[in-house]
Amino acid sequence: MSFLSKLRTRTGPGRSGRKGPPPCDCALPEPRKKIRTVVTRRGAAWRGVLLPLVAIALWSAVSALHLVKSGLLVSPLAVLQTGWQQTVSGALLRALSASLAREASGFVIGTVGGLLLGSLLGFSRLARRMVGPSFDTFKQISLFAWIPLISVWFGLGDAAKVVFLSLAALLPVTAHTCDGIHAVPRSYVEVARAFRYSRLQLIAHVILPAALPSIFTGIYLALIYSWLATLGAEYLLVSGSGIGNLLIDGSEQFRMDLVLFGIIVVGLTGWALNALARAIERAIFARRPLRAS
């Protein structure tokens, strides 16, 4: 019997006088509602594409009518041609792979450190009293304020960028892990103690599953923050290649087609990371009711 089943047995309402097997609360599937749900989701997806299409249409009209100087705003066709050239030459793949490699390294290091530190602050009162005030002060410092110190200690190479990205991922994971552990209902702990759960069982089967939504929120924010910090690190620590360096090259050469193409790549990459995180979240939480039952 799982912990949730025990919790329902202990805290649920009393038995009624009805004899025989309990009534089945299963309902037959309703095809019409499912079809409407699918249609609604498809309509929502098309509505999400509407705004980018309108923006591209306005962009094309402004460029064709020469309402803005050609040096400041190029046509979508010129951006498309530049993107094709960057893709065929391999420059896009090199820049994007370098940025994603830094982002992945900083995200993993910061997430692991955040889970450990957040768990320590969540489970240990002594650590919370000794480290908690320092961490609360630390997270109030702007992330970019650490750039001068990081550049002095680690230089301008990839090591400095990974350290910067690790800090960006560390803060949200630590905060949400600690808050998720503290937010576990007291009744869960009391029921687990009534069933004589050991401390390890209490942590593994009660506290961590209950805190998982908050922990995953911190990991999701760490993924987004580390990607945003990747561009900031490549802007401020200009050594090496990456999407940020591609944007810098475009602005220095006054190539607005290259700058706009880089911005589009940054947006699409962030959207893909967001979609990946949401898909993993749905896959994880879709299995939780099955396990609990």
UniProtKB/TrEMBL annotation:
Residues 1-27 are annotated as: Disordered. The keyword Membrane applies. InterPro entries: MetI-like, MetI-like_sf. It comes from the Bacteria. GO terms for biological process: cellular response to sulfur starvation; transmembrane transport. Its main location: membrane. The keyword Heme does not apply. CDD domains: TM_PBP2. Keywords: Cell membrane, Membrane, Transmembrane, Transmembrane helix, Transport. It is found in: Cell membrane. It is a multi-pass membrane protein. Pfam families: BPD_transp_1. One of its GO terms (cellular component) is plasma membrane. Residues 96-277 form the ABC transmembrane type-1 domain. The chain crosses the membrane at residues 44-68, 104-126, 138-156, 202-228, 258-277. Belongs to the binding-protein-dependent transport system permease family. This is ABC nitrate/sulfonate/bicarbonate family transporter, inner membrane subunit. It comes from Paraburkholderia xenovorans (strain LB400).
